[in-house]
Write a structure and sequence with these properties.
Layout (H helix, E strand, L loop, with lengths): L1 H111 L2 H49 L26 E2 L2 E2 H22 L7 H8 L1
Antiparallel strand pairs: 1-2
C-alpha cells in the first residue's frame, strides 16, 4: 500500500507540475495568440465586409441598369406613340384635304361651272386663236415677200444706176472686161444670177434711149423739133 501511495503522490505532483508549466507556457504565448486571433478576425470581417459591399454594388448596378432600361423603354414608347400620332394626323389631314378638294370640285361643277359648256368655249377660243395665228402668219409671209421683192427692186435699181455709167468696163472684141473671166461664163462676176456685163449693157442701152428721147423733145438740139422746123423753112 505504501508503494501505491508513493506512486500516486508522484503522479499527482507530476500532473500539478505539468499543469503549471503548461499554464505558464500558455500565459507566455497568450499575447501572440491574441494578436493572431485579432488579425484573423479582422481579415475575416474585412472579407465579409468586402463581399457584402461587392454584393451591394452589383445589386445597385443591376437595379440602376434595370431602371435605366425601364426609363429608356418608356421614353422610346412615348416617342413612338408621338410619332404614330403625328403620322396619323398627317394622314387624316391629307385625306380630309383630298375629300374637301373632291367635294369642292363636285359642287363647283354641279352648281357653278358647266363642264361641257366650258369645254366648248375653250375649243372655240382655241379655234379662233389658231385661225388668227394662221391669218397673222399669212400676212407676215406676204409682208415679208413684199419687203423682199421691194428690197430686190431697190437693190436692182441702185445696181442699175451704178452700172449705167460703167459701159467703159465692158468687154470688146479684142479685150475682155474686168467683170468677164477668161476661164468662161461660169467664173464671170454675176449679180442677181445675171452676168454683170449684161447688167451694164442693159443699163447703158436704157440710159442712151432716155437721153435720145429727151433730145428729141428739147428745141435747139440736133434732131429736136426746132431743128426740123428750121430745115423745113
Amino acid at each position: 500500500m505504501a508503494w501505491v501511495c508513493a506512486v500516486r503522490e508522484r503522479a499527482v505532483a507530476r500532473v500539478v507540475r505539468d499543469y503549471f508549466e503548461e499554464t505558464a507556457l500558455a500565459e507566455s504565448s497568450r499575447l501572440l495568440e491574441l494578436r493572431a486571433v485579432t488579425r484573423m478576425q479582422a481579415w475575416w470581417r474585412g472579407t465579409l465586409a468586402r463581399g457584402q459591399l461587392r454584393l451591394l454594388n452589383n445589386s445597385a448596378r443591376r437595379i440602376q441598369a434595370a431602371y435605366r432600361g425601364y426609363r429608356g423603354r418608356q421614353r422610346a414608347a412615348d416617342q413612338r406613340r408621338s410619332h404614330v400620332r403625328s403620322l396619323r394626323r398627317a394622314l387624316y389631314n391629307e385625306a380630309a384635304t383630298l375629300i374637301q378638294k373632291m367635294y369642292r370640285g363636285y359642287m363647283s361643277r354641279r352648281t357653278r361651272v358647266n363642264f361641257y359648256a366650258r369645254k366648248r368655249y375653250i375649243d372655240e377660243v382655241a379655234e379662233r386663236s389658231q385661225a388668227l395665228r394662221r391669218a397673222m402668219q399669212a400676212e407676215f409671209e406676204q409682208r415679208k415677200e413684199e419687203a423682199r421683192e421691194r428690197e430686190q427692186l431697190e437693190a436692182a435699181a441702185e445696181f442699175s444706176g451704178i452700172t449705167s455709167n460703167l459701159h467703159h468696163l465692158l468687154s470688146t472684141a479684142t479685150q475682155a472686161g474686168i467683170f468677164k473671166s477668161p476661164f468662161g461664163e461660169v467664173y464671170s462676176a454675176k449679180a442677181f444670177d445675171i452676168p454683170v456685163e449684161e447688167h451694164i449693157a442693159d443699163a447703158f442701152r436704157a440710159t442712151r434711149a432716155r437721153r435720145q428721147q429727151r433730145a428729141k423733145h428739147q428745141p435747139g438740139r440736133p434732131g429736136g423739133p426746132g431743128t426740123k422746123r428750121a430745115a423745113a423753112t
